[in-house]
Amino acid sequence: MGNKEKKPFWLTILAIIALSLVVAACGQNNAGDATQGGEVTQPATEEPAAEEPAPTNLLETIKASGKLRLGTSADYPPYEFHKIIDGKDTIIGFDIEIAKEIAADLGVELVITDMGFDGLLTALQSGNIDMVVAGMTPTPERAEAVDFSDVYYTAIQKVIVRAADQATYTTIESLAGKKVGAQLGAIQEGVVTDQMPNSELRALSKLPDLILDLKAGNVEAVVVEEPVAKAYIAANPELVFADIKLEQDEAGSAIALPKGSAELVEAVNATLARLKQEGKIDQFVTDATNAME
Ligand code: ARG
Predict the structure, then answer these.
(1) N or C: which end of the chain has fewer CB within 10 A?
(2) Average pLDDT over residues 235-246
(3) Is residue 39 part of a domain?
């Protein structure tokens, strides 16, 4: 019978149709997130089921994701720095302890990304991180691009020189015509250009590179916040504080958050207020200072 010969052909067509349906269903299942298992009964265009309301602001988004993404520049002891703990490269410091407390208060996990200080605000603005805790000073220029928490710590600016040159570089004038280092994108760049107009600024992304330059004689001095200067001097006996007084030398540190994240700013400030009240920030600074080599 001719009929018999055609049957396999129709079966093939049916099989192809069935197969493409299954493939299409799988595709939908992979692309969507609301369906489970083989339950693909909704057309692709239908709106997802409204079980969980979409997060309305960054604070809610962070809570829903279960993660707080911290950006920092871990070249700034005792604020944030690398230390081998139990054979593992770990980022610690008082900024990190503060960030951990914020994450704990939000009930989420802290995820740390280490980068150059000059890349932090861009990363925050592009949504790659949720907050910056990096000894960052809330300047009016930065405040145009991001929101800032309350100030949680204040330090003064210092100049580091080689011990052998301590008697040579005693004034700002003595550094005229000399190269002075500052971290790229940091307010210390402005300290050099504003207060040492006759010196030549050398700005690098990572502070350890500037310290190497100073030790190698490629720069004559480096401007940095006092606690950090102390840390690098302690680790490098050939470096000392210069006896140079800078003006307008106080700089506060605050936490940077994306522009317009009022709820998150409020939550961060609540944690900072609690830590201040409990004397924890001083404790974190002491602990971090003790943890430095
Ligand atoms: N306070 C200075 C600023 O905001 C320097 C901060 C540098 N921080 C760092 N983690 N390297 O510009």
Answers:
(1) N
(2) 95
(3) no
Residues with CB under 6 A from ligand 1: 73, 75-76, 79-80, 117, 134-137, 183, 186-187, 207, 225, 251
What is the atom index within ligand 1 of the atom nearest the CA of 73? 10
Please state, in angstroms and as integers, the Cα–Cα distance from residue 162 to each residue in 106, 144, 165, following that order.
45, 38, 5
Predicted pLDDT of residue 52? 67
Residue 51, in any domain of the structure:
no
List the CATH number of the domain containing 195. 3.40.190.10
Is the pLDDT at 28 greater than 60? The verdict is: no
Average of per-residue pLDDT values in the chain? 88
Q: What is the pLDDT of residue 56?
A: 81
Nearest atom in ligand 1 to 251's CA: 1
Would you say residue 48 lies in a domain? no
Residue with CA at minimum distance from ligand 1 atom 12: 186
74 CB burial (10 A radius; 0-12, 13-18, 19+): buried
Q: Given a cut of 80, is residue 25 above it in pLDDT?
A: no
Counted domains in the chain = 2
88 backbone φψ class: left, alpha, beta (φ>0; ψ -120 to 50): beta
Are residues 163 and 179 both part of a single domain? yes
Evaluate whether 80 touches 74 at the Cβ level (below 8 Å): yes
* pTM of this structure: 0.81
Same domain, 257 and 210: no
CA of 136 to the centre of ligand 1 (A): 5
66 Rama sector, left if φ>0, alpha if ψ -120 to 50, beta otherwise: left
